[in-house]
Here is the input.
Amino acid sequence: KQEVTQIPAALSVPEGENLVLNCSFTDSAIYNLQWFRQDPGKGLTSLLLIQSSQREQTSGRLNASLDKSSGRSTLYIAASQPGDSATYLCAVSGTGNQFYFGTGTSLTVIP
Amino acid sequence: DAGITQSPRHKVTETGTPVTLRCHQTENHRYMYWYRQDPGHGLRLIHYSYGVKDTDKGEVSDGYSVSRSKTEDFLLTLESATSSQTSVYFCAISDGTSSGNTIYFGEGSWLTVV
Here is the structure.
């Protein structure tokens, strides 16, 4: 069974700092990988989708990379802002339209 | 935003009573999912559907049943609610195309069983 791990579970950084969130998965046979943001008391909002054939995707200050062979993805956030404070989850999709989620990294950006 | 509506958004119910949560989508997506999210466990799949009247169990299906009589609606029923089913329940949808498969989530339903 696919296992998805996100380390660290929590991260606190000062405003303006660049940061990297990590996601690892055990089975490299994935169709794609998604990064989500979840604010307290809210649902999950999709941030970036990387196809299995792609190496990275960018959206504004966010850049996600994928190394399928090593089972790793990173989410790079440039020039962090207090509004970036949230929990970030990654998910991989596999056969049978199943999705496997990490437990998330809780990010706090300190003004 | 994907057109997914969950109802009710918040509910308090007593142990032993049946509860039904509804998910309605306007995207005509083939796949619909029910997850629960709990601290320390992340998102866990309860049941999913791959078409009208086609459903299957997820990893935490005990105590739950589902029905999908129309493409747009996916119902989750707790037959006899227990305190361990206090959780946040998320409905999600995907179009089922393997290459560009994206999953979209509803806003969640907060259920408290007392």
Observations:
- Chain A touches chain B at residues 31-32, 34, 36, 41-46, 49, 51, 89, 91, 93, 97-99, 101-104 (CB under 8 Å).
- The mean pLDDT of chain A is 94.
- DSSP finds no helices and eleven strands in chain A.
